[in-house]
Amino acid sequence: MDTLSITRPDDWHLHLRDGPLLAGTVAASSRQFGRAVVMPNLVPPVTSVELALAYRQRIMAAVPEEYAFQPLMALYLTQQTTVADIRAAAAEEAVIGFKLYPAGATTNSASGVTDVSQLTEVLSAMADLGVPLLVHGEVTEPDIDIFDREQVFIDRYLVDIHAQHPRLKLILEHITTKNAVDFVMGCNENVAATITPQHLLMNRNDILVGGIRPHNYCLPILKRRQHQLALQQAAISGNPKFFLGTDSAPHSQDKKENACGCAGCYSAPAALELYAQIFNELGALDKLEDFASHFGADFYGYPRATEKVTLRRESWQVPEKVSIAKQDFVPYWAGETLAWRFAADNTLSD
Ligand SMILES: NC(=O)N[C@@H](CC(=O)O)C(=O)O
Ligand SMILES: [Zn+2]
Ligand SMILES: [Zn+2]
């Protein structure tokens, strides 16, 4: 088999940034994906429907004319978010849900939630109105080891949130541990998870052995190999609770290769191929389409895409650098080889 034709995939977790960067980030993602959940961690954060619709327009203006792309906007949940904000979001088709960032957990999360216990009313409204909650699941207390932060967040908060709001659609984003896999599998059908390419392809050795590799540094941080293996099994299991979310998160080369480097992997230039790489290595290419193109849409209640895209078996190298708005970015997997390649003729006319 030298070509693989699958339903056009969607990216259920994406950072496009803003301003002049949109020309590059939107082009890269819209080349492969039909829809994407656009994360709201801008400065200032995207906290209202008005801000989200304005941001959406800036994104749409950057979509190359040969591609169709539908950004699904996530709003930034803060301690000030009200039930009225939830109602406004529920009434706006372009908004997909609210993103919970614990304050201080990751890039541009300073405006995030400081006290999860105060969210009960807002979460009840979300459950009632069918508004999904997207979660960056890590505690931020300095006494909790960075490798334990996801597990502690699940134990401390998510178990209770799901028990109190079993109808709330909850997506645990960019899962990194076997604990997260087990949590999601143990919940009812309203709880799902996205999995990134880096957490499938790598473990924490890939950040630290033989020298520090800042381009493999993202949050939640890569974990032990046993967790990587659990994520791989979840991704190829055919369980519809696990689906594609790249968490492609560009930071310029100088901000990554820095004494205090930023967290985030820019995977968009080779996103689908990175997933194809690991599914192929696991002998599970037949499971890629469900994971990349079906399960996310099914979970969120969107129609599956109707058009197809093609991957070809062709060895190629991810570029060492890409330039966006005169800044250099080092893509995830830069200079490394991939076995499958997205066909260049995947455009609207397919
Ligand atoms: N994943 C990351 O390491 N970084 C993301 C934020 C996030 O998704 O947590 C970013 O916006 O840079
Ligand atoms: Zn995150
Ligand atoms: Zn992210």
Written description of the protein model:
The protein has helices at 22-32, 49-61, 83-90, 120-129, 149-164, 178-186, 197-201, 205-208, 225-235, 253-256, 271-281, 288-300; strands at 3-7, 11-14, 35-38, 70-77, 95-100, 133-135, 170-172, 191-195, 242-244, 308-317, 322-324, 327-329, 337-342. The chain contains 12 helices and 13 strands. It has one domain (10-303): Metal-dependent hydrolases (TIM Barrel). Helix 3 packs parallel to helix 4 (120-129). The model has no long low-confidence stretch (mean pLDDT 97). Helices cover 33% and strands 18% of the residues. By secondary structure, the protein is of the alpha/beta class. Strands 2-3-4-5-6-7-8-9 form an 8-stranded parallel beta sheet. A 3-stranded antiparallel beta sheet has the order 1-10-13. A two-stranded antiparallel ribbon has the order 11-12. It binds N-carbamoyl-L-aspartate (NCD) and zinc ion (2 copies). Residues 15, 41, 106-107, 136, 218-219, 247, 249, 263-264 line the site of N-carbamoyl-L-aspartate (NCD).
CATH superfamily: Metal-dependent hydrolases
Q: What would the average pLDDT be, to the nearest integer?
A: 97
The CATH topology assignment is TIM Barrel
- List all distinct small molecules, including ions and cofactors, that are bound in this structure: N-carbamoyl-L-aspartate, zinc ion
Shape: globular
Total beta strand runs: 13
The largest sheet has its strands arranged as: 2-3-4-5-6-7-8-9
Strand content: 15-25%
Q: Number of helical runs?
A: 12
Q: Uncertain segments of ≥5 residues (pLDDT<50)? A: none
Strand-pairing-aware structural class = alpha/beta
